[in-house]
């Protein structure tokens, strides 16, 4: 690795020194380097507990052993370094190869809640650290609520709602394999999830069945992939961000909240808000709050402008992952 790239990574870690020092037990989840905005565009580096995860977006194989040595030198508590090659030829390369250590962490802790992780289960981390402040919102606002978490993946948002005292949490996802992680997260926090807390299957028929049963929820969480196509329908957050919202709106109880996450990199913040505002009438649907992405995902190298590095300007959001809460009133209530 070039000397300049090494220095940029060291500088990125130094920007996060306060956050690193705030967790002496080393259980946190943290973005160590936004390669895209911090001068190393082929890399992103995450910290999950005592494991560093290198996401390598380069097209050609690069020897990252020297990067593993650099990270171990900067973070003396590290026990493992995992490399994920996004363009790798094999599932093993994409899901993760250990560069150092023998075992990766299997949980992280955030706002006094523990979340199970499986760092080689998929090409990502099995846990999205960028929605940290959304989990904090759920912890603080779901007491006694009935919560629907769609596109739940490994269920961290639903676990946060349950840890915050939700009366009921229903998590839905296409994959039973991924949602099994939510059972482990519940156990880590003394929570009880049963099969009644989960529905597996395609989003469109699942939502149709809930609507037919006239199910209602105080909070509906909408965090889909930016694009997905199945035999039952298409999700395209860049070109049709309202489709999923309109499908789920009937499931919100009167005075309920819908939390919408849109991670479409090519949809600007202004355009996303324009779509949202087009369906808000101020009475039955009202934009209530914008939830930010944590600063460790938003750092830029001092000489860089983050907006110039994104395909679309995320402003007024602080990151291309755009999160809003909507307040819903029901006409028949």
Query: What general outline do the C-alpha atoms trace?
Result: globular
Number of strands: 16
> Largest beta sheet: what is the strand line-up?
10-9-8-11-14-16-15
Whole-number mean pLDDT = 94
The amount of helix comes to: 25-40%
Note the main sheet: 7 strands, mixed
Give the assembly state of these chains.
Answer: single chain
Structural class of the secondary elements?
alpha/beta
How many helices? The count is: 11
**Poorly predicted segments:** none
Strand portion: 25-35%
What is the CA-atom radius of gyration, in angstroms?
20 Å
Summarize the helix and strand pattern as letters.
HHEEEHEHEEEHEHEHEHEEEHEHEHE
Distance between the termini: 62 Å
Describe the protein's topology.
Layout: H1 3-15, H2 17-21, E1 29-34, E2 43-48, E3 51-56, H3 65-74, E4 80-85, H4 91-95, E5 97-100, E6 107-110, E7 113-116, H5 132-141, E8 146-150, H6 156-163, E9 168-173, H7 176-188, E10 198-200, H8 203-212, E11 217-222, E12 227-230, E13 233-236, H9 242-248, E14 252-262, H10 269-279, E15 285-291, H11 306-309, E16 322-328
Parallel strand pairs: 3-4, 8-9, 8-11, 9-10, 11-14
Antiparallel strand pairs: 1-2, 2-3, 4-5, 6-7, 12-13, 14-16, 15-16
Helix pairs in contact: 5-6
Can you describe this structure?
The chain is of the alpha/beta class and 333 residues long. The protein contains eleven helices and 16 strands. It has helices spanning 3-15, 17-21, 65-74, 91-95, 132-141, 156-163, 176-188, 203-212, 242-248, 269-279, 306-309, and strands at 29-34, 43-48, 51-56, 80-85, 97-100, 107-110, 113-116, 146-150, 168-173, 198-200, 217-222, 227-230, 233-236, 252-262, 285-291, 322-328. The strands form four sheets. Strands 10-9-8-11-14-16-15 form a seven-stranded mixed β-sheet, sandwiched between helices. It has a five-stranded mixed β-sheet with strand order 1-2-3-4-5. Helix 5 (132-141) runs parallel beside helix 6. The protein starts with a helix and ends in a 5-residue tail after the last strand.
